[in-house]
Amino acid sequence: RNALSLSVETLAMSVLATAMAGVAVLLTFLPAARNLGNGELGGAPSRLWTVLYYLVRATFTLTRAIPELVWALIIIFFLSPGILPGALALGLHNYGVLGKLSAEVVENLDPRPTRALRAAGSSNFQMLFYGIIPQALPQFLTYMLYRWEVVIRTTVVVGFVSAGGLGREFRLSLSFFHYSEVALIIFWYLILVVGVDLLSAWLRRLARFD
What we know:
By secondary structure, the protein is an all-alpha fold. Helix 7 packs parallel to helix 8 (166-175). The chain has 9 helices and no strands. Helices cover 81% and strands 0% of the residues. The chain has helices spanning 2-28, 34-37, 47-65, 68-78, 83-107, 112-119, 124-159, 166-175, 179-209.
């Protein structure tokens, strides 16, 4: 029962981390695309957009350059141990990874639909929401689900520094040589990984279908 409860905590940590990273990226990945600021997609070149490009790109680089374990050590220094520090650490690192991937999706978009909208008299706002986001959103969702698969595997790593879930219990059981408990934790961990992989694959198929 304890292992099942810890598995639920681990799953909750991974979902929370992926959701936080996904929402943050969804709000910031457009300024990180170079072709939006320089007018390649049909909009007018903007100096403000160029400044935002370098600022957001630097944020992506910083957050993904620091490993999840280091983020967890820093956050636990300020917060009490639990799944929230682990989710924040995983979310920060994956924010940088997912943000870079999503920005590159926009940079590789076909510019013809947005240029056609601009030629038809669309505003910048209409061009973004009718020409860019509909093209980028399916690939963004696919990348976010891929990162969820990575996050569920990394929860054990941040758990080693008391960030909650199966990782913390795994470290304690290993320290006291309770190998039967270690085997049980690994069993539940494998169930989580396989379950998340299958669910993520199904959701990715839905995203591609849409």
